C-alpha cells in the first residue's frame, strides 16, 4: 500500500560532524588566546582562564576557562562554550575531549545548522568511528518538522541516523503527526532518501490514519510504503 502523506528528513543530524570532527580529528595547529595562560611542562598541563578563544582553521571555540593535559590528551572547556564552524554552531555549558577522539558536550547542548536545531542533555561524538549519540532525550527541529525520541544516533560515514524510543514526528505545515518505537533515516542515493518507522508505527494527516508494523517514508516522491499488516482510516473531507 502506498499513501501520499509526508516529506520528512533527519539529515540535519549528520551535520554534527562539521563541528566535532574538525576539532577531534584534525592535525592542524590550534591557536589559543586567553586573559591568563599557565603551562606546567612537567605535568603537561595547560590552564587558560578568562575569555578563552581557540581557533583551528575555520573553526572557533570560545569559553570562560579551559584545561588541557598533553599527556592524557584530555581537554575541558567550560563556561558558556560556543563552537562555530561555517554555518554550524554548538552551544553548551561544558565540552570535554578525550584522547583527541571522544567529545562530550553537556549542560543544555544545542547544535544548530542553518534553520535546523538538535538538542538534548548530552551529545557524545567519536571521531574515529564518525559516530554521535544523543541520550536521555533528543529533539530535532527543522523549518517545518519537530522530531523527538529517547535517543538519536548518527552514523556519518553511512549517511544514516537512528531515533529510538517514543519517536514522535510533528509537522504543522504538512498537518502530519507520526509515532513509532524507532525511526531510521537513510540519506544515501542508493537508499532513495527514506525514513523507516517500525514498531507501533502510526501516521495521521488531514484526519486520515495509517498504521502498520513498518511505514517507509520516501522523501523524494512523498509517499509511504507499508509492510506487514496495515490499516488505513480515511476521514471524509
From TrEMBL:
Residues 27-91, 99-221 form the Organic solvent tolerance-like N-terminal domain. InterPro entries: LPS_export_LptA (IPR052037), OstA-like_N (IPR005653). GO terms for cellular component: cell outer membrane; outer membrane-bounded periplasmic space. One of its GO terms (biological process) is lipopolysaccharide transport. The keyword Nucleus does not apply. The keyword Signal applies. Keywords: Signal. Coiled coil: none annotated. GO terms for molecular function: glycolipid transfer activity. This is Lipopolysaccharide export system protein LptA. It comes from Pelosinus propionicus DSM 13327.
